[in-house]
Fold this protein.
Amino acid sequence: MIVGAILVQNTAWISARKALDALITAGLLDVAALLRVAEPRLAEAIRPSGYFNSKARKLKAFAQLVAAEGDGEVGVLLAKPLEELRPLLLATHGFGPETADTVCLYAARHATFPIDAYTRRILGRLEWVDSEARYEELRSLFVSQLPANTFAEYHALLVRHAKSTCKKRPLCGQCPVLEICPTGWSEVGSVEAPVPPTPGDWSD
């Protein structure tokens, strides 16, 4: 999952999946192999993902992190508390806030919330946040307003909604949250704009 989170950066999952399968076929999907393999060979193996030279360096950096901070075991690294693991990831080449939080939430099962383009799109159309809101501001908003045991499901549902309905060209007429979406009401031609709920209502 962590390797996939790196490979999918700036590309579609179908391309990342091809690169992941290539790593599996080549026997390179473990820390020892990633440390041992020459970077040019690794880059060639993940070519389908795009930006393969850059991503090869990122995979190497992650393997080095596991070796240094996890005794060579991914599980040992992920067992670290969030306040220790997240800074370690953020200090590693290839891990911006979104990737770090994705790993912390889905792989390490920590209570954090990734803010991706899908989440920003939905929040923006609902007019719940300013379009220029910074990453940490949005992450803190979710973490403070939702029960921690719902983070993974809530994030997954946002991604699903953005892919199926709230697309770049939204299908507002089919939207299950049209009732509270000013953008949707504008798209379908309603004469009365909705009153969006406040963040305090999100968990209802």
